[in-house]
């Protein structure tokens, strides 16, 4: 005799942006969870965010206060959706009251990549001709690459990954810098011309990982999300986010990081760069991975002692004046 225990079923609503990359990422999450919890139904609800709509203003001028996340967060707060899938890089380090980072998934390659126009297919960053126009909307990429390659010039580029590639191919730019992770996820790995090594440019906080945001204390959802949690990536990203939070920057300040975990030890390297690429503050900390956030905060304090705050103050003044 066996009695049937009917497990409660429910419909779980996943919020996502509509860009191709966002959808690839969100459908992956949906598929994994649907497999793990066949008794539930996982639905994707797509929305446009401010960041998708405002395409004619440099990102650095708009600021970063949840440009790509606000509309998704409103949906969770008013109960129309249950969690949101983000590129962790786009998720602010301080979340609205009532929401939390519920899960960090396994990271793709967090490096930046050079993507070149066809005519430069035999070139790399060092050998691109003097004055080549490199498209990037990230101050972090701009500052670090200017430092190492003063012969290049930089121009803002907006829009999603596909739009940016179209602008490159039409001749508006000689090359672009894009996250390798995004290209890999979009099945565009063949466009990666050169992976930028970490001694040239440190990547963005959270780059290559997905961050799933949900309501604080929503134990049912948190329990479900556990199947996607990747502990080493989570430790690395908590350290990176604590570093950024303490420096009070967002995605749009020239702050780069690199992390590695060996055994139980996490090493975090961080850089704060001036826009002209002339001043760089770079340092590292190592310690127990379980103390990830503490390590991030400690590195930020050290960076401040070495002049990081002055660099950031100059940048905020420049952006607000422009
Ligand atoms: N800001 C846009 C954005 N957000 C996440 C990614 C790529 C994927 C990732 O870093 O996880 C990108 C595009 C890019 O930087 O090339």
From TrEMBL:
Cofactor annotation? dipyrromethane
Q: Reply yes or no: does the keyword Membrane apply.
A: no
Q: Which residues form the Porphobilinogen deaminase C-terminal domain?
A: 235-303
Q: Which UniProt keywords apply?
A: Porphyrin biosynthesis, Transferase
Quote the cellular component terms of the Gene Ontology held in the record.
cytoplasm
> What Pfam families is this protein classified in?
Porphobil_deam, Porphobil_deamC
One biological process term from GO is: protoporphyrinogen IX biosynthetic process
Q: How is the cofactor bound?
A: Binds 1 dipyrromethane group covalently.
Where in the numbering of this chain does the Porphobilinogen deaminase N-terminal domain appear?
A: 12-222
> Where are the S-(dipyrrolylmethanemethyl)cysteine residues found in this chain?
251
E.C. numbers:
2.5.1.61
Q: Does the keyword Transferase apply?
A: yes
EC main class here is transferase
Q: Name the reaction it catalyses.
A: 4 porphobilinogen + H2O = hydroxymethylbilane + 4 NH4(+)
Its UniProt pathway annotation is:
Porphyrin-containing compound metabolism; chlorophyll biosynthesis; Porphyrin-containing compound metabolism; protoporphyrin-IX biosynthesis; coproporphyrinogen-III from 5-aminolevulinate: step 2/4
| Single annotated GO MF | hydroxymethylbilane synthase activity
HAMAP family (UniProt xref): Porphobil_deam
Subunit organization: Monomer.
Under PANTHER family, the record lists:
PORPHOBILINOGEN DEAMINASE
Its family remark reads: Belongs to the HMBS family.
Please give the function described in this protein's UniProt entry: Tetrapolymerization of the monopyrrole PBG into the hydroxymethylbilane pre-uroporphyrinogen in several discrete steps.
Other remarks on this protein: The porphobilinogen subunits are added to the dipyrromethane group.
Name of the molecule in the record: Porphobilinogen deaminase
Species name: Leptolyngbya boryana NIES-2135
Q: Which gene encodes it?
A: hemC
């Amino acid at each position: 005799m066996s009695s049937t225990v009917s497990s409660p079923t429910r419909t779980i609503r996943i919020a996502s942006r509509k860009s191709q990359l966002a959808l690839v990422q969100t459908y992956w999450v949906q598929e994994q969870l649907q497999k793990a919890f066949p008794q539930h139904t996982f639905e994707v609800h797509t929305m446009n965010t401010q960041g998708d709509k405002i395409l004619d203003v440099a990102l650095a001028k708009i600021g970063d206060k949840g440009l790509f996340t606000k509309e998704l967060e409103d949906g969770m707060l008013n109960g129309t959706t249950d969690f949101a899938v983000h590129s962790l890089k786009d998720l602010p380090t301080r979340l609205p009251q009532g929401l939390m980072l519920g899960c960090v998934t396994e990271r793709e390659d967090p490096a930046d990549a050079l993507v070149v126009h066809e005519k430069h297919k035999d070139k790399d960053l060092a050998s691109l001709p003097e004055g080549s126009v490199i498209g990037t909307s990230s101050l972090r990429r701009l500052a670090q690459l200017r430092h190492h390659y003063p012969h290049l010039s930089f121009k803002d580029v907006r829009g999603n990954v596909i739009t940016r590639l179209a602008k490159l191919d039409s001749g508006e730019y000689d090359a672009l810098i894009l996250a390798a992770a995004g290209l890999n996820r979009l099945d565009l790995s063949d466009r990666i011309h050169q992976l930028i090594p970490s001694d040239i440019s440190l990547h963005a906080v959270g780059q290559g990982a997905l961050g799933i945001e949900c309501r604080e204390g929503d134990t049912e959802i948190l329990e479900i999300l556990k199947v996607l949690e990747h502990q080493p990536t989570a430790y690395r990203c908590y350290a990176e986010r604590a570093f950024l939070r303490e420096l009070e920057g967002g995605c749009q300040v020239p702050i780069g990081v690199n992390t590695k975990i060996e055994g139980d030890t996490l090493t975090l390297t961080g850089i704060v760069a001036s826009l002209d690429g002339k001043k760089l503050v770079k340092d590292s900390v190592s310690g127990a991975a379980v103390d990830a956030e503490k390590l991030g905060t400690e590195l930020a304090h050290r960076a401040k002692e070495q002049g990081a705050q002055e660099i950031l103050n100059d940048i905020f003044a420049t952006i607000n004046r422009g």
